[in-house]
Design brief:
- The structure is a single chain.
- This protein is α+β, with helices and mostly antiparallel strands.
- A hairpin with a 2-residue loop joins strand 2 and strand 3.
Length: about 60
C-alpha cells in the first residue's frame, strides 16, 4: 500500500531522517511524506513516530498505486 502523510511545517533534515522509508516534498509550509507502507502495524508505527516528534498531521490518505 502507498500512503501520503501531510504534516504542518517544513521538516528539518534531522526530522526527515526519522522517516528513512519515506520520500518527501515540501510545499507551502507543509511537508508531504509518501511511500510504501507494508502493513497496518507499519502505518500505526509511522503515526506514532509523528506524534512522538510533535508533528501535526494535516492529512493522511492511501494513494493510488
Amino acid at each position: 500500500m502507498r500512503y501520503e502523510i501531510r504534516v504542518e511545517g517544513q521538516l528539518s533534515e534531522p526530522l526527515i531522517r526519522m522517516f528513512p522509508e519515506l520520500d518527501h516534498v515540501t510545499m507551502s509550509g507543509q511537508t508531504l511524506l509518501f511511500g510504501q507502507v507494508v502493513d497496518e502495524a507499519h502505518l500505526y508505527g509511522l503515526l506514532a513516530r509523528c506524534q512522538s516528534l510533535g508533528l501535526r498531521i494535516l492529512d493522511l490518505r492511501q494513494a493510488p498505486r
